[in-house]
């Protein structure tokens, strides 16, 4: 975990006022600490993502929360999907095969 | 991997303007940014190529050197990313802190909903029996109802409500599980449970600490100086309490057993902190008396406060 100064040094082109605004908006959620904040790796990666979105992808402040919210939903779904796959992996081979066959039917790949 | 010509990668002409290059890069980056394409390896490779090309063409000096043949497309490629991408975290447990929460602070759907989703999905439905999903609710309970216990109606849906028994002494944040009151099961599977998170509303003058109740009790100057019996509110109703003569603001009196009743039958206590109140509008007679009295009875309540 690192503080805000270390984050500023790590990420080129990031302004502190900007980062503080993102924290206020809860787009970035570092841990509050006695002096300022503590950032986990995931927070730093998220700041880089937001920097990319703002600079490289030209997404403005108005649209940013929509993009982040949709991304958060995608990743939440992917985490659940992963949990689902792990649960499936723990099943007996015939169960896995039955589920696989069923899923193929849903995606229509073995129809016709 | 042989690097492609950066102009080809960005799909711009040799004489493209800075603005044309920026816009071409933006368009491609929007499409191939790895964090926007989780699980897509090709997007990652494409994005690397695109940023490499942009690294050359967006830099006047590097672009000129490339055009003169002094550097090749790979020579100026951005160094391998030294940091981990967001998607690497977001797909695992660390990403949970950015869990999407729907409006009104509702609990995020848990795995149960995924099963419900799969069970609902579909063509013809399966024949697997599945337990219904648990449903999460929150219920705000009156301070006194939380201490004394109560029954309270919870609206689950416009046409469905549930009478919830609030156990006496329930604490803020406690989750009650009502079996079989969640979503119905699939293919005659058992219904899920209703999970009800209790929020205890604050009280205008009682405060709860564990099983004890704390209360600030205003008393008159007369009661403070001479002592006497006063009525003190407790969660189970007012009781008579004796105030010793010469009681100051801040004096704490204990009413044994007047706190929160515990499941084992014992109870916490109520702690009453006295607060001496002068008459609300200045009292001339009192002022005259104190003017006479004070000089002859000097005392220093701030002794020991000198730094």
- The structural class of chain B is alpha+beta
The number of helical elements of chain A comes to: 5
**Number of helices, where a helix is a run of at least 4 consecutive DSSP H or I residues of chain B:** 9
Tell me the total number of β-strands of chain B.
11
Order the strands across the largest sheet of chain B as they lie in space. Answer: 6-7-11-10
Extract low-pLDDT stretches of chain B: 103-108, 119-125
The string of secondary-structure elements of chain A, in order, is HHEEHHH
- The averaged pLDDT of chain A comes out at 87
What oligomeric state do the depicted chains represent? heterodimer
- First-to-last CA distance of chain A: 55 Å
List low-pLDDT spans of chain A.
none
Shape descriptor of chain A: elongated
Strand order of the largest sheet of chain A: 1-2
Percentage of residues in helical conformation of chain B? 25-40%
**Number of extended strands of chain A:** 2
Share in β-strands of chain B: 15-25%
> Rg of chain A, please?
20 Å
Largest interface: A-B, 31 and 33 residues
Let me know the average pLDDT of chain B: 84
Keywords, please?
heterodimer; A: mainly alpha; elongated; B: 307 residues; alpha+beta; 27% helix; 22% strand
What does this protein look like?
The complex is a heterodimer of chains A (112) and B (307). Chain A is mainly alpha-helical and 112 residues long. Chain A has 5 helices and 2 strands, in the order H-H-E-E-H-H-H. In chain A, strands 1-2 form a two-stranded antiparallel sheet. In chain A, a hairpin with a 4-residue loop joins strand 1 and strand 2. In chain A, 20% of the residues are buried. Chain B is an alpha+beta fold and 307 residues long. In chain B, strands 6-7-11-10 form a 4-stranded mixed sheet. Chain B has a 3-stranded mixed sheet with strand order 1-5-4. Chain B has a two-stranded antiparallel sheet with strand order 2-3. About 4% of the residues of chain B have low confidence. Classes of the chains: A mainly alpha (112), B alpha+beta (307). At the A-B interface, helix 3, helix 4 and helix 5 of A face helix 2 and helix 5 of B.
């Amino acid at each position: 975990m690192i503080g805000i100064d270390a984050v500023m040094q790590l990420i080129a082109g990031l302004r502190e006022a900007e980062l503080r605004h993102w924290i206020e908006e809860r787009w970035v959620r570092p841990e509050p600490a006695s002096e300022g904040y503590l950032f986990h790796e995931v927070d730093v990666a998220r700041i880089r993502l937001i920097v990319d979105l703002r600079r490289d992808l030209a997404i403005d402040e108005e649209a940013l929360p929509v993009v982040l919210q949709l991304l958060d939903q995608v990743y939440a779904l992917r985490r659940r999907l992963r949990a689902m796959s792990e649960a499936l992996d723990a099943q007996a081979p015939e169960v896995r095969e039955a589920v696989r066959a069923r899923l193929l039917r849903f995606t229509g790949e073995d129809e016709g | 991997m042989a690097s492609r010509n950066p102009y080809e990668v960005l799909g711009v002409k040799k004489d493209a303007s800075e603005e044309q290059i920026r816009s071409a890069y933006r368009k491609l980056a929007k499409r191939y940014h790895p964090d926007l394409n989780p699980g897509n390896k090709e997007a990652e490779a494409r994005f690397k190529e695109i940023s490499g090309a942009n690294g050359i063409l967006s830099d006047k000096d590097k672009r000129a050197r490339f055009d003169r043949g002094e550097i090749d497309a790979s020579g100026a490629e951005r160094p391998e990313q030294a940091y981990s991408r967001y998607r690497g975290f977001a797909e695992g447990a660390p990403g949970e802190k950015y869990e999407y929460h729907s409006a009104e602070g509702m609990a995020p759907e848990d795995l149960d909903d995924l099963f419900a989703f799969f069970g609902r999905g579909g063509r013809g439905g399966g024949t697997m029996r599945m337990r219904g999903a648990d449903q999460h609710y929150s219920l705000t309970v009156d301070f006194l109802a939380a201490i004394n216990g109560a029954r309270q109606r919870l609206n689950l849906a416009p046409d469905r409500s549930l009478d919830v028994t609030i156990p006496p002494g329930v604490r803020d944040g406690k989750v009650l599980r009502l079996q079989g009151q969640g979503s119905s099961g699939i293919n005659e599977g058992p219904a899920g449970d209703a999970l009800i998170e209790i929020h205890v509303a604050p009280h205008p003058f009682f405060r709860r600490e564990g099983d004890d109740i704390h209360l600030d009790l205003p008393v008159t100057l007369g009661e403070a100086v001479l002592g006497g019996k006063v009525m003190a509110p407790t969660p189970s109703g007012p009781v008579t309490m004796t105030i010793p003569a010469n009681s100051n603001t801040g004096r704490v009196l204990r009413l044994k057993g007047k706190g929160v009743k515990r499941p084992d039958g014992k109870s916490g206590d109520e702690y009453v902190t006295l607060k001496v109140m002068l008459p609300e509008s200045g009292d001339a007679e009192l002022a005259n008396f104190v003017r006479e009295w004070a000089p002859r009875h000097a005392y220093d309540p701030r002794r020991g406060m000198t730094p």
